[in-house]
Amino acid sequence: MIKLISFSSSIRLSSNFIRRFSHVHEDLSAERISYEIGILTEDSISKDPFEEFDKWYLLAKATKEIREANAMTLSTASKQGIPSGRPVLLKVFSLKFGF
User: Most buried of 4, 12, 54, 86, CB within 10 angstroms?
Assistant: First the structure.
């Protein structure tokens, strides 16, 4: 059984749509890939965010499963607190000068 919850009055799903897909059930939990490689604590990170980014970026570049280490999601929030995210490709980074 699929439970659908509307978070906004603008979201409307027809009963036909629900009937059409209510029989679909697939356990996707086995598809999970663990990306954990350690623990992040305040004591383990640099106080300089550019140095910390450099460490993370070099680790991502050295990881063969990561094909585009410069691909990331940039997220911001409006003054009203509404989040927005978009994919970006980092083109230039220099530890000497920052971004």
Answer: 54
48-85 pLDDT per residue, tens: 988 999 998 999 999 888 899 999 999 999 999 999 99
Q: Is residue 20 included in any domain, yes or no?
A: no
- Please check whether residue 44 lies inside any domain of the structure: yes
**Contact status, residue 18 vs residue 4, Cβ threshold 8 Å:** yes
Number of domains in the chain: 1
Q: Is the dihedral of CA 16, 18, 23, 26 positive or negative?
A: positive
DSSP letters, 26-86, are: ---GGG------S---GGGS-SSHHHHHHHHHHHHHH-TT-S-TTEEEEEEE-TT--EEEE
Q: Please report the pLDDT score of residue 73 as a whole number.
A: 94
- Measure the CA–CA gap between 4 and 12, rounded to whole angstroms: 10
| Residue in this structure with the two tokens 């978070």, named with its chain if needed | 7
Q: Which residue range(s) make up the domain with 43?
A: 35-64+85-99
Q: Say if 54 falls within a structural domain.
A: yes
